[in-house]
Amino acid sequence: MFKFKNRNIIYAVVPVIILVLLFSFLPSFRAPLLDIAKHPYKVLILLKREIGGLIFFHGNLVRSERLRREVDLLRLKLNAADEAYRENARLKNLLAFKQKVSYKVIAARVVARPADSWSSAVILDKGKHHGIRRGMVAITYLGLAGKVVEVTEYSCKVMLINDPGIGVSAIVKRSRQEGLVCGTLASSLIMRYLPKDSDINISDLVLTSGLTESYPKGLLIGRVVEIGNEFSGLSLYAVIKPAVDLTAIEELLVIIP
Amino acid sequence: MNRLIFLAIVLIIGLLQATVLDVFKFFWVKPDLLLASVVIASLLFELRWALVAACFAGLLKDITGIHNPGIYILLFPLWSFLVIRLSRQITLENDFIPPVIVFVVVISDSIIARVVVLSLGDPVASLGIFLRVTFIESVYTALVFILLFRIIKRIPYYKE
Question: Model-level pTM?
Answer without folding.
Answer: 0.70
